[in-house]
Every structure is written in C-alpha cells, then in structure tokens.
Write a structure and sequence with these properties.
This protein is α+β, with helices and mostly antiparallel strands and about 750 residues long. It contains 26 helices and 19 strands.
Length: about 750
C-alpha cells in the first residue's frame, strides 16, 4: 500500500461530501463529535499512517462516499457515519477501539469492533474461502449495522473500481459482491443496492453479456417508454376518479435480472417478455404518524384497503394471471417487505407486472430493515433475529462450502406460512417439509417425528408444506434420525439439529463398537496396537475410523473378521526390535536401584523404567523408530505390553492428552550395540554423481548399513529417502553432518 496525498479533484470531492453529510446528520451529532473526528483524520494524513488501498483509492474519500451512501440509501445516522469515518484510522493502527469508546461512545466502538474483525479476515485470505466465510458471517451477525455498512461499502467500492488496472483484485471483489453481499442485501430488503451489486458484478465478470443487454435496452427504450405510457394512462384516470392520491412509475428490470431470465429460459434478449414492471405508490394520509398502537392498526388497515382497491381497478381493466399473485400485505416477508404483486395482460397481448404499495411500504422496500425499524421499532425484527441465530447454528455444525450453499439458499428462497394446531404462525422457505416444521418446534419432536396430520390426513415427513397448512406432528418413541433426513429438510436450522443428533448417536455407537473389539482382543490374548489398527482401517477402505466402528456397531462388519485381518497384517509387518525378538522386562532396571551398578553386566540395550514390570514385553514403536540415545517414554498397550516412543513422536501429544495414565517414564541404559533402522530425507541440486557421493560416505563406515535408497528428480532438484542401519544417535548425528557437507545437498533431516 502506498502513502497518499490528495489530488485537486479528491480534495474538492472530499470537501463537498463532508459539507453534505454534515448538513444531513448535523442534528444527530453530539457536542465535540466534529472536532474530534476532524482531529483524527488530519492526524492520519499528517503522520502518513493512512494509505491508499490495492486499487489506489483515497481511504478518506472512500469512507465519505460510503457514509453518504448509508445516509441516502439506508437511512443510518450518527453512530454508523462516525464509525465509517474512523474506520481507516482504526485499521492503520493510529486509533484503537478503546479510544473510540471514550471519545464517541460504546455504540460506535461496537460497530468498529465488528468492522475490525472483518478486516482481519480480509487480510488473511479471500472471503470466499470456506473458513473465512464462516468467520465473516459470525462477525456480521454480531450487529445489524455492521452488515448494512459492509453492503454499502461494497456497493461504493464496486462503483469506484471501474477503471482499475488490478484485474485480479477487481474480479475477486466482484465475485464476493455477487456471492455474498447481493444475497445479504436481498435478505435485508435493500433491493436497490442488491440490484446495483448484481449489475456491477455482471459488468465486471461478464463484460460482453452486460453490454449486449445494455445496448438492446437502449435500442428499445423509446418503444418501451411509449408502451408504459399507454399502459399507465387509463389506470391513472380510473384511480383519480376513485379519489385516490398516488403516483405511478415504470421500472425497467435490472440487467442482471434480464440476464438471469435469458440463462434460465435459454433464450435471446427478444425472448424475455417482462422487461419492465409498473409500480403504483399510494399516498395514504397519516401512514407515517402513529401516536399509539391503536392508531397504527387503523393506519395499516387503511393502507391494505386502498391497495386492494387499486388491485380491483387494475384487474378490472386488464386480465390478471392468478398464478402470479403475490400477497405480501396480509403476511409481510421476514425483512419487513410489504407489497401486492400481480401480472396482467396489457395492450398488444404483453404480460406486465404491477406492484401496488404505499409510500411507507415503498421506503421499507428501498431502505430495507433500517426503514422498518423507523416505523416498527427494533422489537419488530424478530424474523431477522431468528435468521441471524440460524446462521450461527448452521456455522457451528456445517462444513465450509456446505454452509455457503445453504446460506445462499436461505437468503433467496420465497416463503410459506403455516400454522400450529393452536393457531401460531411460522415462516419457512419454499420447499420446506414436515420434518423442517418438527425441528422448528423442538429438537426432540424432530428426532421422533414420523409424519404429520394436515387437513385431516396423515402425510410423511418429506411432505412439502404449503401456505395456510395447519400442521400437527406425529411422533414415535422408537424413531431415530437418519443420514438421509439431511436430504429431506430444507432449512439450515433443521440440518444443524439432525447433524448434532447423528453425531451424538455415532459417538455412542463408536464407543460400543470399540468395547466389542477390545473384548475380542482380550479373549484371544492379542495385543491391540493403535497404529496397526489405523493401518488396517485404511486398508479396508475406510476414510474415517468412525465409519469403521459404525459398521461394526450395526453388524455389517463382523468383529471376528476384523480380528483375523488384524493378526494377518501384524504378522506381515517387520518386527521392530533390533534382534527381531521381543525383549522382556527382565532387561529393565529401576532408577536409583542397586542393580543400576551392575549396568556393565547387563545386555547392551537396556531400558530403565520407574516401576518393576517383570514379565512384560516391550517393542520399539514403528511410528517414530526410536534408536539408542533418543529421549523416549513407554506407553502401556491394551494387552499389557509396552511400546517405546520418542518424546518428539508425532503421536506423543495425543497419547499424553487421551491416555496420560498409560505413560511410563523411560530412558536408555548401557550402551548401544544393536542396529536400528532410521530414515533420512535428503534434498539438493540434481548434479551428476551426487547420489554416488552420498552412498560412498555411508559405505566408508563399517558400522553403517545402507538398506535402501529412493531418489526422485524434478525441475533441477532431487529429493529422496535413505534407510540406514546404525547403532545410536551419536553415529546418526555424525552421519547427518557428513551428508550436509556434500556439494549440492541443501537439506538432511530424520523422518
């Protein structure tokens, strides 16, 4: 990022925007806000701590543009605007959140905290990567204003990067806008911003398609405007005669919407018939002023009555399509959207969509939840609260890409409205099933659901709900969730609860299967080695150990067959001790024991252990291949034997965490005489004769034996594994030092 100074154009634009914003929100500012804000911004410029972004954009001008956008399009005020203006100073480290809270209050600080978390995610990796996507959504779900600001910020950024030369960053930003921010804007009712994000994304990602549609729209604009005028005129006359106050506007559908229709219908531009919609906006007196709850109810009833009156007039004049009726007056969308949509057959036999709403409804539709709060209060946003809670629940139990797809599905789906037997109303996405309804009521009811009664008849769990259904869930105590249920349910809430129930069930089944195997092993007096068992599980074609144990628990896999295959696998593997014979605990000597003085008379490889475990065999673990001189510890296996591991063994941490009570301290005693197998990884330049040089060094030492060598060459580099038999760590360290001196060798390490 480069330091910046203001250009003349940037300075003029900044001053103009600052004056405009000051005028718009001046009444909501607190005493001293403006002075403190100006101080922080000037300090960032003077100290050169603020930088241009990857597109070369001025951060202060960008923040002002975003602030203006949230005021004009969303209706946010002081807290959001101040947070946006301070964001560059916080991100560069000039200002911290604690100082913001002291100077501007906890509300501004909370917004900046959420924005800061998102910035940290962006600095690591692109948002569309799975884990970052989850983190981003969790950050967004903390404060609704953070979501609104991020949407506005992305719209503004998309506007400013039109001429950027950074094509890769431009593409990434556009993909994020289409994948995440446009659906968010849709969910929150910010349809204007959603359309702009989609259009700009299409413009940058599908340049030719965008301009093809744009040119076609320009060519047909005159005829389209004339048609809209012919359609509107008779309606206006009839509405005026009815004594209604209104205004009508024709709206061409967005380029992205037309492009989607072309893709879905697999047709050219000329094949898309509904290129525009007519919007009738009623002016209902007193709709914004509601002194109390009773007055609000009266106003709402008046609004609905006049909307249906307009509907009656329009459908009297033009033939309606009943299948295309969308009634969001009786039951609004969860984001507060209210409107009445009908498609009618207009002049020249063309289908035209007519949207009927009041001015209040129109403002809610344009500004989404922010406008809804203004009229209903925050308490009216229970639907959105539930949605954000659902996001959190989904993220806790879903994988990354699956969460992303489910999230998009929840954002864009239409809604159906169903009732409980007591008359409670619930909203679900279109396509939701009886099972979704059951899990919405309670997890236990969902887990035991066998079907439902709708309109006096019993339906299965996969039956899709329809608006107006009264649903009574039927349960059975012996019912259990199954894996295929995940394909039946539609909502993320139900999916997360099913996954949780399956996980709990699998854990119980897994523990039961392990007990069965352990009992079989004890009965046949066979030692169960964990590394061998994991190898067997992989050889039997299981990706996860949990799948393996579930097969045993269900009876699909016979435990005796597993035992036989385990024994065969164990016998096929090489013994791990130097003399190929399992040594007994008679060779072990207690620390601080009088017998320690007799070390010189003991066998050459002696392990000293802190307790007298006579009659118990020990072996050297294959996973880390310990040799004489390595720091080691003992691990008591299920059969009672001891496996010796290096202290830096890859499995050591897990063994200490899960089976700390089975760890035995151990150390070498005596001196090494047996030969131990170790593997060295060598990396270097692929020069002629380098392999010969390596083997010569090993062959010169009589106490070293080269068992195998495997060399692979690629792009001028070689890498290979050398398997060597040697006595102890001292000889190993000496060998590594010698190999590192060979010309062309870059790296030698023990594996």
């Amino acid at each position: 990022m480069q330091q910046f100074t203001f250009t003349i154009e940037e300075r003029d634009a900044t001053l103009a925007l600052y004056a405009k914003i000051r005028q718009q929100i001046g009444s909501s500012l607190q005493e001293g806000d403006e002075e403190r804000l100006r101080h922080h911004l000037l300090l960032g410029i003077e100290t050169q701590q603020l930088h241009r972004d990857i597109f070369g954009l001025n951060p202060i001008l960008l923040a002002l543009q975003t602030a203006g956008l949230v005021i004009d399009e969303i209706g946010l005020k002081r807290d959001a605007v101040v947070a946006i203006m301070l964001r560059p100073s916080v991100e560069c480290g000039q200002l911290d959140v604690a100082e913001v809270e002291r100077d501007f209050g906890p509300s501004v600080a909370r917004i900046l905290h959420g924005l800061g978390r998102i910035q940290q995610i962006y600095q690591k990796n692109p948002v569309v990567e799975t884990e970052n996507f989850r983190n981003l959504l969790l950050s967004l779900a903390e404060d609704m204003r953070v979501i609104l600001i991020m949407i506005a910020d992305r719209v503004n950024l998309m506007r400013q990067i039109r001429d950027t030369e950074n094509a890769d960053a431009k593409q990434r930003v556009s993909q994020e806008a289409a994948y995440l921010y446009a659906p968010l804007a849709h969910k929150l009712g910010l349809y204007k911003l959603k359309s702009e994000l989609e259009d700009l994304s299409l413009k940058y990602l599908e340049h030719d398609a965008y301009y093809h549609i744009k040119d076609k729209l320009s060519e047909t604009k005159q005829s389209r405007d004339a048609y809209i005028e012919r359609f509107i005129q008779p309606i206006s006359e009839r509405l005026s005669e009815a004594g209604l106050k209104f205004h009508i506007k024709g709206r061409t559908k967005s380029i992205h919407s037309i492009w989607q229709k072309m893709q879905k219908q697999k047709c050219e531009f000329e094949g898309v018939y509904d290129l525009f919609a007519i919007r009738v906006i009623l002016e209902v007196s007193g709709e914004k002023e509601a002194a109390d709850k009773a007055q609000t109810t009266v106003n709402q009833a008046l609004e609905k009555m006049q909307c249906w009156q307009v509907y009656s007039i329009v459908t009297d004049m033009y033939q309606p399509n009943p299948k295309r009726l969308r009634d969001w007056l009786s039951v609004p969308k969860s984001n507060g959207y209210e409107s009445l949509h009908i498609t009618v057959l207009g002049p020249e036999q063309k289908w035209v969509e007519v949207q009927i709403r009041t001015e209040r409804m129109d403002e809610v539709a344009e500004r989404g939840v922010a406008a809804h709060w203004r009229y209903k209060g925050v308490k009216g946003e229970t639907g959105l609260d539930e949605w954000l809670t659902g996001i959190r629940s989904m993220l806790e139990t879903s994988d990354g890409m699956e969460a992303m797809d489910q999230f998009r599905m929840d954002l864009y789906e239409d809604e159906v409205f169903v009732f409980t037997p007591r008359g409670d109303l619930y909203k679900f996405p279109k396509g939701a099933t009886v099972l979704d309804f059951a899990y919405h009521i309670h997890s236990k009811i969902g887990n035991q659901c066998t079907g439902a009664r709708i309109a006096g008849r019993v339906v299965p769990i996969r039956h899709q709900l329809q608006s107006g259904d009264q649903v009574e869930i039927v349960t059975a105590s012996n019912q259990r969730p199954r894996q295929e249920w995940l394909n039946i349910v539609k909502t993320s809430r139900a999916k997360s609860k099913i996954r949780l129930a399956l996980k709990e069930s699998q854990q119980k089944d897994g523990l039961y299967a392990k007990e069965i195997l352990e009992r079989k092993f004890r009965n046949r007096k066979i030692e169960q080695d964990e590394s061998t068992m994991m190898l067997l599980i992989k050889k039997m074609g299981f990706k996860e150990a949990s799948e393996f144990y579930l097969k045993i628990a269900s009876g699909e896999l016979d435990a005796n067959v597993v035992l036989d295959r385990y024994v065969a696998l164990q016998q096929s593997q090489q013994p791990v001790t130097g003399n190929n014979v399992a040594e007994t605990a008679a060779n072990f000597v207690l620390e601080n024991s009088p017998l320690s003085a007799l070390n010189s008379h003991m066998p050459d490889d002696v392990l000293t252990i802190d307790r007298n475990l006579k009659g118990i065999d020990y072996q050297l673990a294959r996973c880390c291949q310990p040799i004489y001189g390595d720091p080691v510890f003992g691990f008591v296996t299920i059969s009672g034997g001891i496996k010796i591991h290096r202290t830096d063994c890859p499995n050591a941490a897990e063994m200490r965490r899960r089976f700390g009570y089975r760890i035995v301290r151990a150390r070498w005693s005596g001196k090494g005489a047996s030969q131990y197998s170790i593997t060295l990884r060598v990396v270097g330049n692929d020069d002629i004769g380098i392999v010969n040089n390596l083997t010569n060094i090993i062959s010169r030492d009589e106490r070293l034996v080269l068992r195998s060598i495997n060399i692979d060459s690629h792009d001028g580099l070689f890498s290979g594994n050398l398997v060597v038999m040697l006595d102890d760590t001292t000889r190993l360290e000496a060998l590594i030092r010698k190999l590192r001196t060979v010309k062309g060798v870059k790296q030698v390490e023990r594996i």
